Amino acid sequence: DIQMTQSPSSLSASVGDRVTITCRASQSIVSYLNWYQQKPGKAPKLLIYATSSLQSGVPSRFSGSGSGTDFTLTVSSLQPEDFATYYCQQSYSTPYTFGQGTKLGIK
Amino acid sequence: EVQLVESGGGLVQPGGSLRLSCTASEFRFIDYWMIWVRQAPGMGLEWVGSIKQDGSEKYYVDSVKGRFTFSRDNAKNSLYLQMNSLRAEDTAVYYCARLPGGAGYGMDVWGQGTTVTVSS
Predict the structure, then answer these.
(1) Closest CB from A46, A50, A100 relative to B107
(2) Could you report the per-residue pLDDT of A5-56, keeping only the tens digit for each?
(3) Buried b (16+ CB within 10 A) or exposed e, B54-82
(4) Residue A57, CA distances (Å) to A53, A54, A98, B23, B108 in order
(5) Do B105 and A91 touch (CB under 8 A)?
(6) Residues of A in contact with B35 (CB under 8 A)
């Protein structure tokens, strides 16, 4: 199985900050990497698919990059509604594993 | 509104069985792979498995193989998860989600989740 490792596991930031979350795969997944946002008690929400494609309706302050084994999610200017937990997920081969999550909190 | 609605969760004893349902509305259900994802209390997301549009291909995470079975009824726009031989570690919120296109896409519509608790 492909292991997905996110870093950091948690971080604190302020409104307006630029933040980056990293996701590393245990083997190449080409560009089959997706990012989700989850708020407490809610279902995950797809933000970015195929490394860098923004899901419809997602604000342009979210962006993704990378290839092979190393990927990043960047939020260019944090808004109050962005404080949540973020997960990466590979869709290269089953099982389509998730990273352990990054909890983004308010500083 | 495009949506998925899960049902069937509840409290079950270890070794017991439960059947979850996921009903789709306002989209062509037959066009999509469907996915089950679970989340244990306070933990991250775990991909449980997937089922192809016509039900001909199914994939399961190792921890549920031989115990869980996916099925779907496209005429009823419904997805099912039959869970047998349940264990305490199966306790989680179970989500269904749709997967547009192929492997290069993410799960773009999710249900609200249904809670399964395995305990004596």
Answers:
(1) A46
(2) 999 999 999 999 999 999 999 999 999 999 999 999 999 999 999 999 999 9
(3) eeeeebbbeebeeebbbebeeeebbbbbe
(4) 12, 8, 23, 24, 11
(5) yes
(6) 96
